[in-house]
Amino acid sequence: MDPLTISNISVSYNNQTVIPNLSISLPRPGIVALVGPNGAGKSTLIRAITGVTPISQGKIHLGSVDLLKLSALDRARHIAVVPQYAPMPDNFKVQEIVMLGRTPYLPIWQNETANDHAVVTQALKQTNVYNLKERFVSDLSGGELQRVVIARALAQEPDVLLLDEPTAHLDLKHQTSILRLINSLTTVNNITVLLTMHDINQAAKCADSVALISHGIIEAYGSPTDVYTSERLSKVYDTQVDVITHPDRELPFVTIYDNLHQ
Amino acid sequence: MLNSPIASSLLLFVILITAIILGVAIGSVPIPPRIITDLILDRLSFTNITIEEISKYSTILFDIRMPRVALMALTGAALATAGATYQGLFRNPLADPYLVGVASGAGLGATIAITTNLNSDPLGISIITIAAFAGGIITVGIVVMTARVSKTTPVTTMLLAGIAIGSFATAATTLLMLRRPDGLQRAFNWMLGSYLGGGWTPVKIMIPYMVLGSLLIFINARALNVFQLGEEQAQQLGIHVERLKIILIASATLMTASAVAFGGLIGFVGLIVPHAMRILTGPDYRRLLPCCLLGGASFLVLSDLAARNIMAPQELPVGIITALTGTPFFIFLLRKLKRSVF
Lengths: 262, 342
Fold this sequence. Notes:
The structure holds two protein chains of two kinds. Chain A is α/β, with parallel strands linked by helices. Chain A folds into two domains: 1-78 and 159-262, P-loop containing nucleotide triphosphate hydrolases (Rossmann fold), CATH 3.40.50.300; 85-157, no CATH class. Chain A has helices at 42-50, 72-76, 94-99, 114-126, 142-154, 172-188, 200-206, 224-227, 230-237; strands spanning 4-13, 16-26, 30-35, 57-62, 65-66, 79-82, 160-164, 192-196, 209-214, 217-222, 241-245, 252-256. In chain A, helix 4 crosses helix 5. The relative contact order of chain B is 0.16.
């Protein structure tokens, strides 16, 4: 299967370099979590992959396809995004929102075909919101809404799904169910998943590998056990942390060292 | 909400036909519906009327009422369609066709023409019309260029630029009116939206703008749906966001400027009709825009009918009627619905 290969890209905003020179290869199928401090360039990397933020040099390939040479429409057939803040028009119904995910496949004058409806139904079912399809998005809870956004992204039938902080603002139960859903995407849809996360313990749990990013540079990339060392994390996050092994799960568990009460 | 798109369009179509028939039949000289049919059949050479009693209506019907009703229908359609487009583009329920400076620019253009007493009518139409059209287009052009940041035109900046440049044009208009008070009444009447006459010429001039503008807007209706997810998501779904903005603003501006140039500043149609149509058909722009076209046309034809007849023989500016009738109707719809429509 075709991996997503990012080679030597650099991204600047207003003459300020956010990503100086970054390379990473994401397996397919597979889940990679992008972790790192605020302002490290996580969201910028996601925007660069989707093409919303232009890159000043470097290449992004999906297998042998040069993504930078594709039109926005063609690129949207390969790459879908679940943004951190997704504005939703209140008066649209769930299935209408998910149908918008078919945009990259529809010529400007053409209406949805039976196949488009089938793909949407499949996405609604997979994300467990099929029973909500006639509801207005304004009536949904935060957890339901996040599922609808994921369903819309799946309706794009992407090869790569990018999720920016998919569990932010959700309670523990809904975090679990969203992460479970994301995990199923590699087995069911056979796709590449790249997600950003602030909770590095959660990242260790749900991803196959983690990429630690700092100042636009990948500091380490590999299994959570290899990447999470207390020395490295303390340096990158500029705060003393402890890394212990979770007693039951064989996973690294990161906690801040500082005793806040002293 | 009517579930079937065909049902709602059909309903609006029937309403429009009724409005047009009422519009041509009622006036200082009422024309009986039977005679209207006879005259139209005669015009289409199906029959041949020689009776003088009937043919005296001919001039009133074909040269006065019909062009006026047609112009009102086109104007209402243009304003409502442009209003819906701007509401979608700016993702703002308060947006109306005058948001980015068409109205204030056209107002300035018209006032310049009125106060300088330009009386020529090149192309067979009033110089006021030409000046208003040019003023509207130029102002929107300045607004869009002012708001342009590198290769993008952020909608918030455009909105603010529209307000700022609009205020400037309005101030200049007021200044001109104060300096030349003899033109005040004419300028004021124009601003409230008054029919300037002109037979079929305005209709013929407006049709190409309407056809081009609404065609460009209609083929982008689904893109306008995607736009409701925000610019970044629209871009990630493959929409060429900046190009879409320019196409839609240009189309809506052409339609609005031509409507304003002939009809003056008719308020509320572009704000209220799209919302009323949203309640009727839902938010999908592929259904909404055609319904705005039909609904806006009907609303303005009926409003103009009222403006001509309520205080006959005096004519009221149609803008007063649209505000007085549109607002209560809209409040009624909002109260009845009890949920957010936008």
